Fold:
Amino acid sequence: MTPPTFLSLEEVSSHNTSIDAWVVVNGKVYDVTEFMPKHPGGAEIILRYAGKDATKAYNEVHGSSVIETLLQSKILGQIARSSTVSERNETHLEQAAESILKDDKPPLPTIINAYDFEEAARKTISKKTWAFYSSAATDLITRDLNDSSFDRLFFRPRVLRNVTRVVTETRILGQRTTLPLFVSPASMAKMIHPEGEKALARGAASQGIIQCVSNSASYTLAEIVPSTPPNYPCFFQLYVNKNRKKSEELLKEITALSGVKSIFLTVDSPVTGKREADEKVTTGESIATAPMSLSNAGNGSKGGGIGRIMGRYIDSSLSWDDIPWLRTQTTLPIVLKGIQTAADAKIAMDLGIDAIMLSNHGGRSLDTSPPAIFTLLELQKRCPEIFSKMEVYIDGGIRRGTDILKAVCLGATAVGLGRPFLYALNYGQEGVEHLVRILRDELEVSMQMVGITDLSQAHPGLVNTLDVDHLIPSSDDHPYAKWRPSSKL
Structure:
């Protein structure tokens, strides 16, 4: 075996131009000269690190497989570790700053609800990460309504029931789960914790719930799946690429992995919403990369929006006519994620879709779109037959066990939580597990208080929706404005 070639930082530093660029990542020296023009996020960010050690910026958001896969043939050797005093001092100061930041987090046992995790994240994670995770479209109306809409639904508890033992187990697409909830797909989990989606997967599996992995995850699904027991179920969320061949190749890889049980096709984001808080905070020196989409986020002419820049690969031409194409690419059950009207739910049912997820993308796509719990009521009002034909899930604004129970009473098979799990990941796998235990306890107590002991006993009569019933549409048409568009929709 050929011994490794060792290169000094001084030698690397001389290769710092657009026609001769080397970078150091995780101790390896790469020649990125030819790759720069092909870089999805532009050549500028790579040129910024030409001749330098980019390890810290890279590891903040990347899995190691990204550069190793793309540039395996461009590894020149390993860096000789002979840091100068100033470099060591700089590293020491960075580590000290990070330590202070970590010490500001409240001890995990003092976290008693999902809101506590959110507040801890707000105070301790980077400004850019907070902006990316917490931001939503324009005036945040839908994001906030997702949460507050549950406050307008009231329980109708039944008393004098034997509620000594409560069962929260159920099935999602035939897969056992200890709770009627799963981890909704959320991008770039490595921005808040080095283990990212792998820690999410371990935490979810240890508590018996299922993770839906984002197409824009920090790690590939092949890296995430081994984090859970063999054949442990997971779901995969798909954005269809403008280059359909890339989506076809990805689906082939995903379908071949053991444990993947369904494809969640996102349909509520043909383009990326205007998330102003995300746009206002520039990405700085680091750049986010999602290996399964090969998309990157950096600073653009409209700001530093990670979501917008990473979403440039998404195919905005996707339509109902493409569902047969998707069926030819996978044998897995298909879930449409992002249904927001009864009309589209009925089309999905007629096309034989396996399940639908009522969602407005956490308020991140179209502001003033309806909260998912309102869409759930619209389905009950206008097409209740759907609930006997397919499973229905909702996400958006779910923070309490009471929210979960209200959704199940009104017909949801299960609910998804996205941001709360990202905020819990601030504490690593232990944080994820702690959040699940909190939600489990809240759900169990809520079931006992309302007078049921099994999820199969939940029904709409346990929830008073009178405060919002006037907001639920009765038809596809406006109640009195009757003009029609002149062009065909």
The CA atoms of residues 21 and 32 lie 6 Å apart.
